[in-house]
Amino acid sequence: MTAVTDDTIAVRRSWHDAALGFCRRQPLGTFGLAIVVIAALAGLSAEWIAPYNPTSNDFEAMTQPPSLAHWLGTDQFGRDLLSRIIYGARTALIIGFVSAFVGGFAGLVLGVGSAYFGGTTDLILQRVMDVLMAFPLIIMALAVVAIFGTGVQNVIAAITVPLIPRCARVIRASALSIREVPYIDAARTSGFSHARIILRHMVPNVVAPFLIMLTAFVGQAILAEASLSYLGLGVQEPTPAWGLMLQGGAEEYASTAPWIAVFPGLAIALTVFGFSLFGDALRDAIDPKLRER
Amino acid sequence: MTDTATDQPLLEVRGLHMHFPISEGILMRRQIGEVKAVDGIDFSLRRGETLGLVGESGCGKTTTGRCILQLERPTSGAILYDGVDINGLSRREMLALRRRIQVIFQDPYSSLNPRMKVGDIIGEPILVHGLAPDAARRTARVRELLQVCGLDPSFADRYPHEMSGGQRQRVGIARALALEPEFIVCDEAVSALDVSIQAQVINLLEDLRERFGLTYLFIAHDLSVVRHLCQRVAVMYLGRIVELADCDELFDNPLHPYTRALLGAVPVPDPTVEAGRVFQPVRGEVPSPINPPSGCVFHPRCAMAVEGCKRSRPELRELRSGHWVACSEVS
Prior knowledge:
The structure holds 2 protein chains of 2 kinds. By secondary structure, chain A is an all-alpha fold.
């Protein structure tokens, strides 16, 4: 029998070609990525780019509207809003990324393991997840903070724990369908170990939902952190945090100095939006079936 | 063609039962019934032989294959491979046998991991079983296997979605061959392919059988394919084997009423013959394997059934040399 020949051999693309391709095919995703990158850069280089110290008061320039001196205006203590938003990006991204990644990876392992082993393991794990899921994210976080107190680590723990079952549930559903697919049977008939089947054959095939969830989780965690801080249970004054900036003076001066509330609110909304846009685009880009042939 | 076969059976299945429990309740699970997917079957396979396992959907032929591959743990019965009952083996003992028993699946789309390149799919078993000491030797082996299966070695760098159904099925065959097995379960290996591709893959399977001295359990519902490829054929109905005979004997001289009906349903590729043929379809539907009929499972649909068929289950009897039938009314 003659060999089936084909001259279109796939050429390995370099990473910057891949990045350019992503930008061309996913303009919205690129926009989302741009927001994420800007927020990340702002957080990383806050010391150098912030025009003022975010915690120093200037009692001669309180509740000032946006001007050349203070681009986004000042709050009721005369603190520069732009500087506080830039420093707030750092708080938001640290808490967002750590919670989403820890919660996401814990959920990935529990979800795939639960689906692969099935039976009693699955039953017990899923009932535990049910209990955790029964609490809304904010209520659960409130409980954790109420018990352990405020502070960045506790806020991260408070946000991470409720994310785990949300991730595990979705991943388990995808993994369950993959478990029944013949290539898993083929792996089993070749005598591969449980670890190899889970890591090489199941996890890569749930990566698409996992990545979308992970990016959405960063957004959700930022939102949760803002909510907790707004309720006074998250990050404490005078640390700059977006949720915190919406509290107190922002409410008091809402009609006379709306910029105090508008700009931090905008920062939260834009960042969360950027993460979801990027997550959607990433899912499309990562699926080899949707990739350019 | 049977010159490579010896009398020592390579595989012997004795009284194999696979009943899937149907349970109810969340915490207090109790069994409310069972699906008798395979309900006591016996057959054996000699080395170098190809046995066809035919029957309609849901008759238990795929489950039989899965039990032999140890993808399901049978409810009862023995599966003797080279004289050893594989049901009792530990994971480690089974690992050695995994090399000798491989499988080719029906669906060339879902049987290949979409996130792995073809070279990795074929190379992974070689790596895990330590058959090639280094990456270069493994790559060479993968290329050789692709060539053996009629594919260009450059396909190793492709993803499965970049190939056609026939090409993917060849990759599935190459993966099965990677461990140098002696026995391959072909679970509807050509059913999902176009007729022209089917012929190519069947020819490939025949070539490989001769080249590597393989033994096949060929699970199929397409009788013409089975006739072409197999030396012996077992006909299954509702979890039981109703007839087992040499291929030509079974097709030329079917004895069981179900086999006759099955063969009668195959269209003849000649309009004049087809027009003159009296078509007698089997009455009714296949009963549920949850609650199969008493006695002979085929009796509610059988034209020859008598009162006794409802009571006693007919065992396989050797009516002619090598021709076994589970029916009390034929002789």
